[in-house]
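WARN  no MSA supplied for this record, continuing single-sequence
INFO  ligand: adenosine-5'-triphosphate
INFO  echoing inputs
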Amino acid sequence: MKKEADTLNVSPTSSKASLERERKILLDLGNDITKVRDKNDLIVLFSKRIKCLYYFTHTIVTLIDHKDETYSAFLLDNEASPIRTHAQYQQMVKARFPLNEPFIQAALASDDPISFVLEDIMNNPQSPPFLKVNYEGGVREILMTKLMNADKPMGFIHIYTDKPGGFSTEFRSIMKGIASQLSGAVSNILKNEDILNQEKEKSFLLDFSNDISCVRTKEDLEKAVSASLRKINPLGGYVIRKINDDGLTMSAYVYGSEAIPPDDELLQEVLSAKFPIEDGLQNRVLDSYIPLLFSTEREISRGIKSIYLQLWKRTGYKTMVGIRLRIADRNLGILWLAIDEVNIQLLKGICHQISIAMANIMANEEVETKQREQGFLIDFSNDIASVKTKPEFETAVFKVLENLLHTKLAMIQVIASDGFHLDPFMYDRSLYQNAVKDFDEIVANRINIEEPYTARVLSSESGVVFSVEDEAKTGNVFALLWKTTGFKNMYSLPLRAGNQNLGTIWLLADSLSQLMLKGICAQISIAIANIQANEKVLAYKKQLEQENDYLKEQIRTIYNFAEIIGSGDEMEKVYHLMSLVADSNSTVLVLGETGTGKELIARAIHNASPRKDKLMVKVNCAALPANLIESELFGHERGAFTGALDRRIGKFELANHSTLFLDEIGEMPLEAQAKLLRVIQERELERIGGKQTIKIDVRIIAATNRDLEEEVKAGRFRADLYYRLNVFPISLPPLRDRMEDIEPLSYFFVSKFSKNTGRRITKIAPGVIQQLRTYTWPGNVRELEHLIERSVLLSPEGVLKEVFIPKTSASEKNEVALLPNQSLEEVERSYIIEVLKRSSGKISGVGGAAEILDIPGNTLHSKMKKLNIGKADYFGK
Ligand SMILES: Nc1ncnc2c1ncn2[C@@H]1O[C@H](COP(=O)(O)OP(=O)(O)OP(=O)(O)O)[C@@H](O)[C@H]1O
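INFO  complex generated
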């Protein structure tokens, strides 16, 4: 097979001069070759210098790759090659040929150039295919000269000729002679290329680092990585996959491929999928310090099912390199690159930069998420702060949960007033479209705080997260219902106001941040507490309004202006004064004996005034213990004095924009009089124990049966207060001075009590009217009213024939009549003693003297004190 060629294809001149020229050419070639830096220059130079001395068709330099024991074309003499038009030429140029075969082994073993006749060797099944391709191109013989680097073969220079036996001994010796120069030149080129490559890599990494340093968002990263990778890998695509929050799966983070249309269905599926880390490929990359090269086909045939492999295969990515993205000891993801050659240093450099950028973006995203969450909570808090009613609450909650959090409200349950059951407060029924019947059944069954899920949530510090899948496996009806919604987790939290459990909230979501959950629950708890408080206030307000309406109605019926009976001159004078003063804000002082209708007149004035729409507020100054009068009138703050457990507003504040009726003003203690005077003068007050001054707009009507001038003289009533009150006095005449009103009053009361008792009494016998006229009426209209009431009760239907004027009254009337020198006070004193005797000394309660006199027990007590009536007076005689 091996054949030494003896003949030169071109005969050199045998002259000494021509030998000299040859030597010089070869010397020059040797010198030139050592300076060659560019690989194309080498082959051009070689051909130029040698071809003018020796004949051959073309030449090629191949290089050995010791890693995989192959050799491949490195320098090509394209122009001269007779096979460049051959169909397999390109394939040959790119191919790697194994060293382990006889032809190349022979070339390796020979220290001299060695030639082969193609016909002899090309059909050997192990021989490289380029031999045959050359033969087909007309080549017949090949001279192989080994190139060495130090002591190691680094490649070969192949010289081809179409003339058999074309390599002379002289040419062989020349080739041997310049083999070391050629080797030196090739290694220079390689070194140079290496340096150039390193510089390129460096400048690439520098550019990449510059591009990536400006990256702030995922979109920036995509742009920078796509632009840079295009430079080193013009056709291949790439994808950066990020490890998801679950730590178990990875999803596409950034990707670029010009080979796949963006709307491709499989691509979309791959981009939105979560691939398990442990899929036999990703885990290997994450565990590997160096980039790993995978054959798509081989991995599929190994049984790896992930659809991304299908996408790669379909796109024509035969090999993929996976490099982990990592910061410190933390894996962030993987860069997958469609590439068939691995430049470890370059890829590691790229991945280092990408990892830093990704970590920055993720940190940025985290900060942004936190800010967004906080902003969201502030908005939610604003929305919810104004919530007073349940519909407003529902609108606010649904808006935030669905639109912003992509969470569904499964249910809010609130603990009922029995503290044991829970009532559904709010829920999203649309969640249970697939299980409406089950949902309705569950909601219809009232659960209580001992229901296992509820009990767990209520006793937890900050809620429980239930895995829907796991809970459904237990067969629990609630969990089975949750499963129909398709969400992964049920977030269940207690709603609390302070330490008190208000209820529970149940949110369905795949994942939710703790910060958000805590924030939302706190806000919702406050809102529910507010709604409940508001509902209570509204219910209370409604009740008060109803009571108020009822009271107003009652007062209107009892104290109707039209129901003031009396048409005599005395009462006409009263009506005239009332009509003069009603419209104004002036203080009115109503004077008159007990039972003459002072309160009736006061109410009539109020009802005829512009303040009539608000209730007149009455204070009975005689009925209150001295120490409570002030608090009653002006109110007090919590803790203002022992027993002041709550803040309370006084009657003055209650009567704001209305009328305050101070009944029995003559009984007011001096100390309270001073305070009252101040408020009347200044029209403002402070609650007891309070610092705030409260402006009031109150009209005052005061009433008394005492002679206030006398009281002032006696030092029991403040003169200045008297003058303040006595702005517009109206004196009511005693009934005995208006005998003409007795008949209409009697008829009025008969009709009133007939209606009340159901007895139809339409007339009063003339004798009765006569009888009534002769009585002195120390208790005035009230006494007449009660007398008629009793008489109506005791009388048969039809005509009132009899009234039951107490017998003693008749004698008293005489006594009174017989004692013209008795003062009004003395008459009052003896009348009270008489009534006390009749009630066997009982002052208040049923059948007591106060009831007979129709005055409050306290009033009777104070009158007795004032009139100096003791037990001896009514028990003694
Ligand atoms: N002119 C009147 N017409 C109809 N009823 C009257 C009249 N005057 C008084 N009455 C009735 O007599 C009763 C006592 O009246 P009222 O309470 O107004 O008297 P008073 O002067 O305020 O009594 P006191 O000084 O004891 O507080 C009431 O039921 C009232 O309706």
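The domain at 16-196 is CATH 3.30.450.40 (Beta-Lactamase).
INFO  checksum written, moving to next record
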